[in-house]
Amino acid sequence: MAGDVGGSVASGGGAGPRKVGGVRRARVTKKAGTNLPVKAGAKAKGRKLPSQAIRRACFLEVLRRTANVSRAAREAGLATSTVYAQRGRSAGFAAEWDAAVTEALDALEEELVLRVRQGVEKPVFYGGQQVGSVRHYSDALAMFILKARRPDVYGRVVAERAAAEQGEGDEPSQDEARAEVLRRLARLGASGDVDGADGD
Questions:
Q1: Considering the domain boundaries, does residue 148 fall inside one?
Q2: How far is CA 6 from CA 27, 40, 86, 94, 123, in A?
Q3: Do residues 62 and 36 touch, judged by C-beta distance below 8 A?
Q4: Is residue 60 packed enough to be buried (19+ CB in 10 Å), middle (13-18) or exposed (0-12)?
Q5: What is the pTM of this model?
Q6: φ, ψ at 190 (rounded to 5°)
Q7: How does strand 28-30 pair with strand 37-39?
Q8: Which of 104, 109, 107 is CA-nearest to residue 142?
Q9: What does residue 60 show for φ and ψ, rounded to 5 degrees?
Q10: Number of structural domains found in the chain
């Protein structure tokens, strides 16, 4: 009897189930190009596929990393129309979907804040060859983040600046008016006129 068991184990390299201790165990492999498990015989028969729950979990995992619905559906072995249909039918799945996208966007915001603080290295070329690099800081990106996170403060500042540039603020402040007068007098080089103006 022992020889029979040993022979079964030794010949277990075939496609069928292995017999160990008188108990047959199904082989488990993985679907090509994915991490989705496929039962033994599924590849040959072309019928048995990962369960819908496993595919949904794979979809949410990829969505959590990329926020890309098409890519997540493709890697989970699902059609994009299928996942949208499931979202419409299941409030729970829709909530998990939204949470996954939010997590992905949070990671993106974290990366943008890091770029604002630390800058980005950009190569410097001379004569067709890279001779060094310079760290670039983006004020536009910083303002974008500030307006998004604190619109009550920075959104108002931008709106007021735009209104001033469009001439909607007709009355300049006293300091602005004085600075403009001094700038024009300096341009004319009329130093004597400036002294006379101060005396008045």
A1: no
A2: 18, 22, 49, 52, 65
A3: no
A4: buried
A5: 0.49
A6: -90, 75
A7: antiparallel
A8: 109
A9: -65, -35
A10: 1
C-alpha closest to that of 148 among 118, 121, 116, 101:
116
Range of the domain at 52: 24-104
DSSP bridge pairs for 97: none
Question: How many CB atoms lie under 10 A from the CB of residue 75?
Answer: 21
Tell me whether residue 71 is in a domain: yes
Of the chain, the end-to-end C-alpha distance in Å amounts to 122
Name 110's Cβ contacts closer than 8 Å, sequence gap at least 6. Answer: none
Q: Which residue, chain included where needed, has tokens 């300091």?
A: 175
| Residue 121: inside a domain | no
Q: Is residue 85 part of a domain?
A: yes
Strand locations in 49-188 (E): 120-126, 129-136
Sequential pLDDT tens for the chain (200 residues): 444 434 433 444 444 454 444 444 444 444 554 545 444 444 445 556 678 889 999 999 999 999 999 999 999 999 999 999 999 999 999 999 999 999 999 999 899 889 889 988 999 999 899 999 999 888 888 888 888 777 877 776 666 666 666 655 556 666 777 777 677 777 666 444 444 445 44
Place of tokens 């496929």: 38
What backbone torsions phi and psi does residue 121 show, to the nearest 5 degrees?
-75, 125
* Number of neighbours of residue 131 by Cβ within 10 angstroms: 9
